[in-house]
Amino acid sequence: MSDHDEDNSLHEKPLEFMQSIANTGGTCDGQAIIPSDDGTHYDCWCSCGEWRIETTTTEEGLHAARAHTGSVSA
Questions:
Q1: Is 61 exposed, middle or buried (0-12, 13-18, 19+ CB in 10 A)?
Q2: Per its UniProt entry, which superkingdom is the organism in (predicted)?
Q3: Rounded to 5 degrees, what are φ and ψ at 17?
């Protein structure tokens, strides 16, 4: 087995990854934590379309994203 599995999304280019998320149809395949344009907070959302929040730090956003997907407790 090679070190770089061709089907691993971590090895995809960002555009390919985003296109694959867009085609999943409402599942929690990708979350984003992005600085706001004015730099006052982070916009966080999920590819499922059911979760969107603002946080003050990336750590807070990452924890909330993990809680949203069920990988950690809220």
A1: buried
A2: Bacteria
A3: -65, -45
